[in-house]
Design goal:
Number of strands of chain B: 35
Shape of chain B: globular
Oligomer: heterodimer
Distance between the termini of chain B: 69 Å
Number of helices of chain A: 11
Number of helices of chain B: 2
Largest sheet of chain B: 26 strands, antiparallel, barrel
Radius of gyration of chain A: 28 Å
Structural class of chain A: mainly alpha
Structural class of chain B: mainly beta
Strand order of the largest sheet of chain A: 1-2
Strand content of chain A: under 5%
Helix content of chain A: 25-40%
Largest interface: A-B, 150 and 215 residues
Number of strands of chain A: 2
Strand content of chain B: over 45%
Largest sheet of chain A: 2 strands, antiparallel
Distance between the termini of chain A: 46 Å
Chain lengths: ~350, ~700
Amino acid sequence: MRQILSTFLATFLATFSSVVLAIVLCFALPVQAASDQHDLLAEKLNQGDYSRRGADACLGCHYETFPFPINDIFLTVHGQQTDQAPFAANTEPDHFPAGLQCEACHGPVGDHGQQILVDETTRQPMINFGLRANAGADLLNSQCLNCHEDHARTGWLGSAHEIADLSCTDCHRIHQNYDPIQETTTQVATCTGCHSNVAADIVKHSAHPIKDSQLVCDSCHKVHGTGSDGLLLATAINDTCYTCHAEKRGPFLFEHEPVAEDCTTCHVPHGSNQPALLHRRPPQLCQGCHSAAGHRNLPQLADQLPPGGASEYLLSRGCTNCHSEVHGSNHPSGDKLRR
Amino acid sequence: MLRLLIIVLSLSMAPIAGARDYAPNYDNINNQRWRCRLCPFESTTTREVSTGIINVTDSEARFGRDTGLEDEGSELSLDGKFVSRQASGSYWSIVARQLALDARQIDIQAGKSGRYDWTISWREIPRNTWTHADTPYQGRTELTLPTNWIAAFSTSELDVLNESLQTLSFGTHRKRAHIGGKVNLSSHWVINAAATRETREGNKESSSDFFNLAAAMPMPIDYETDDLKANVVYQAKQGLISLGVNRSTFSNHDRSLIWQNAYPSFNGETRGRKGLAPSNEASGWSLDTQYRWGNTTISASHRDTEMTQNDAFLPYTINTQITTDTLPALRLHGKVDSRQNKLSISSRITRRFSIDLRIRSHERVSGTPILALAPIVGDAFSLGDKTSRAYSFEHNKQQFQLHYRLFSGTRLTLGYEQDERERTRSEIEENEEDRLSVKLVSNTYKGLRLALTYEDADRNASDFQAITNNNPLTVRYHQATRNQTRWRANVDYQVPNTPVSVSGYTEQRDNDYPNSALGLQQDEDSSWGLDISYQPSDTLSISASHQDQTLNSVTFGSNSFSVRDWTSSTLDQVRTTTFDIEKTGLLGSRLDLTLSYIYSDGAGQYDTEFLNQSSRFPSLISEHRGINFTALYRASEKLSVKLRYYNEDYRSADWALDGVTNDTIRNVIGMNLVSPNYDISLTNISFTYAL
């Protein structure tokens, strides 16, 4: 029955996906304008027709009460006259785009400020970000990476977020005086805006202290890319866990093999319906690997619960009532992880 | 060979890839007249102090699990924020949160953007697990029973048990001090350095046994961890190179836990002793490089870490009435070398077509000596010789992806991944997994974003070696042959010309273990979610979401140490619903209101089938309901008042705990732990004054 259901679901979803894809492709045809904007903006970058007056030309129209307020950028690091910043003073060509002011990010002005286009309603576009983005993520991100392609972002290309065509401004806010994703009190809400499954995980029965921002996303993840699975800080999963759980690092006299190999063999990092962030609870978790003769391979039945029974393998801590040192033991009598 | 071929292929694309896409043309810039007269450069200073009262209506560890608000009563709330940012880029800030609570934080930052940045921080992280646990044991690292204790072989016959119970709570408290800095020596040279010290104190629930007679008991936690990191980076337009060092030291100030045997001893084992986590160290170095050649970027990194552990061994037993062999060594001289390498090549061949290649390897080589030991079981007698266990493994992963941009905003990615593992001293010494993936991401239609991902992976296992006393039909699931399929669909849609956005996802991951006659057979994870947001103006936003997740697994076992004769399955379902509304700028822009609601309903089913008898356990329940209301009123330019009301209603049921008293299990002294059920409110009124 399960197999039939699976087959049906797979077929249905494949069909559904194809239909959605077809719809998208159909919709794609009329959006030639968006594609043209991307190509136009790329061409503007290539031509490099920058303004004569810099930000003064922009701020003549984009003033404080303009429909799209921008002045808050001057309260941030991007809007200060510091070295390497867009508004750095007196920069040499070698340091461009530092000092190119608004055009450092939004590209050369070209004809944007000079002429009305033929239909008399639109201006030549500048590169827009965020909800009004008018170019592909690759072009938008290239503007940011002109300055920010550094040690912190060596893993960006080919990373999960880059492959998902995320642009920098999908997460970051530049023209407002604080960037929610960089604040510990608001980072989790920003990330779970897309990763909503994690928002559900952090209120489960057992979870890391993410709900109250004691642990935030970049405590474990390097969202700009690392080449590791799950965008983890360290190459090996365990090395990420050891930053807070160094007591599990060992090495031990008697190691528990899955612990040394991968913490996620048993644990679910964001949250679990089971205790201690486990995939499944003892004894079933343990019986997935252990089946030696004796108590290890006993079936556990509900009649072994009170009032009819009281199995030490099910109740209280289950297998760990005796085998308490599951992460490894350094005791000479700890071969069964009981000492 | 395949790996080498792919590397050569990737690198050979570099010359074709040509000059960098979207490289700005700076040749025609004349910025001599760029005065920025209209630029509103300004220095800003914020100086605020907030103080108030927090009141909690009841005590419950889980309510204050991570906030330190686990006790009923009132607490002072105290926050401060002092921030100065100059137009020149110099800045300093001191931000303090919850100074009067166990979760206090202080962050001090200073620097000059683009030149140097310094951070000093202090963080306290409580973790309260149980408010109420009953135990007859007293002490911390040496647990004793009352002097009038009368031992018996069954907990129901421990006559003094109930009268000797005392209540304690469980939890730990981390305190973390951190200092770090980054200095841009020039536009090319950067130095980063950081040091962190963390202490963790408190207790955790644990248990210990004498053969098959066990007792739950508190375990002391007194840890100290020091981390040091530093690296120097040289970066230029073409790339960068970084060299780093790191060192981490973990110290456990408690070496062991001794406890008095509550049961009759039959070979002098009146006390037991178990080892607590040994102190250890890890130190290493790292090298990261990146080179950009037109539209091709090559990154490589190497990490070398040595982990050591050299605590003195405890004796085989604390029972002085037993004669034991001499320990083969006084300490372990434990050592593990970890070497991690990564190579990435990303190349944009044309504006539409790009490739990514990633090769990773992680080698864990154990240099820990294997010792022949004569352990004592239950501090009572010897069952023969054993050898210690130390594991080495090698994990290699190659990932190759082709990306093709069908049209602007739509990209198709085809991927192939090979994952290889080799292990020592293991029933399955080698695994090899091949994974094919296809991903379509489309942002083409304005406002609509679609992402579809499908993956299919097959993992093979080397021949099974019966090196343990497991039933040979059992293959450990993390080593077993496995077929995995995963797919995910995401849709995000901003309805044109409206303030409405809708997003949804559905995801499925199936694992099958076709060659495992016993053990884990299959596990599935399926979920879906829907999110609606309505933001008609800058001052009003309303959003609602729902997520639904189902996890199930099936395990086979054999009671008779032969073929399968029982089945156990688990089914976990979690449904989470949220609703948020935020309205700002009321009463002449003085009042902001927010209301958040979250409801999470988790249920777990556990079934066993044995000899045609089906057995269903009581449902596991975890139901969380939270309502949070805040009102912020700006009374004047300097004074604002914030009122917060939070109610959390939590219901849970766990058959492993509920109804399990100190003497319910014949051979385990319990701690009377009860699944948390509470309805607690928090009220906080605070006044913020701008100095």
